[in-house]
Amino acid sequence: MATHTRLFALARWAVILLFATLSSTQTQDNLQWENGVTERWWVDSATFTKPHLNDAIERWNLIQAENQSAKSNEWAGDYFSGDDTHGTYLRWSQRAGFVMAHVNKCEASLMGLSYGRVLASPSSLEFIFEFNKSSGSHGHNNPHAPAPTVIKFVPVRWSNDQYLIQENEIAEFGDFVAGLGKYNQELAWIDGIQFFARGEAQSNYDELPQVPPGYERFIRRPIDAAIIAVAGSFVRHVKESENPWWNELITPVTLNVGRPDGVKHGMTFHIRGSEAGETVKVTLVGKHSSEGIIVRYVRKRPGLKLNEWDDGVDDPDPVISIGWKLSTRLHK
To answer: Does the structure show a pLDDT above 50 at 254?
Structure first.
């Protein structure tokens, strides 16, 4: 028993020593950035030197101080672009310049760092880079692409939200507003957006964005529609290998918009006010109307339970009705 006790004690001290060594190594190889907008970021000192990090942090804090003063530019402040896993935090002011921090949000680690000067006018902002470096280990930037020296942004106000849109992406922003192009899909918001934005909790997206003169032609209106006829539903059986629990319940509907309105085969319309986020997928386009389907799901066997928390009984879906309002735009 004594031998086992000594061995256990030696093993315990070995583990403690290992963790102490790893902790010391992490402290030596990594820096921390208490940024004030989210959790602290870990910074690899092999990629970003301490002087460059200190310069960025000092500028970051100076920008905040300027923006808290009464003389701050109305567009200055903190912006974010990205999704749930990666994102770029941008802070800028007219005199102190800008700082961009690209962050792996899952690891709270800094992946890219940029800072520089800002030239501001009523219709545009030019960010002039003085430092720009990336670890190159993430998939959001092309490591072979030349680093930018200047980025020109267009300030855009959309209800209570403010956007900074790169000038060469203003047409894509127009698609984003209208829910068209690559944004016309059932779950288009899942991957986040690439535009820098800051906003309030409540916004009226029924309005079109306000853009500087000359950029109005890029902002597209969404296609709005209504259901004018509802046909009988039918079950589309799904292979067990594809889904062992659910079949699809298909309801054909007719919309009051057609080809002259910009409707295309395969286009997605979002049902306004749908708590479940239901959509209509266009299957046939005509001159004055279009056909589409609403897909719901029914259990393959009544009472089939999916897990121990499921009672096998689903809440009733709202009855699909003539007059339901639809739109291509994602924003409510």
So the answer is: yes
What is the pLDDT, as a whole number, of residue 136? 61
Single-letter amino acid code for the residue at 144: H
Q: How far apart are CA 140 and CA 187, in angstroms?
A: 20
Among 193, 218, 243, the domain-final residue is: 218
Phi, psi angles (nearest 5°) of residue 303 = 80, 0
One domain for residues 154 and 297: no
pLDDT over 90 at 79, yes or no: yes
The parent domain of residue 319 ranges over 224-327
Please count the residues of the chain: 332
User: What does the pLDDT read at residue 138?
Assistant: 44
Query: Are residues 270 and 213 part of one domain?
Result: no
Cα distance between the two ends of the chain: 70
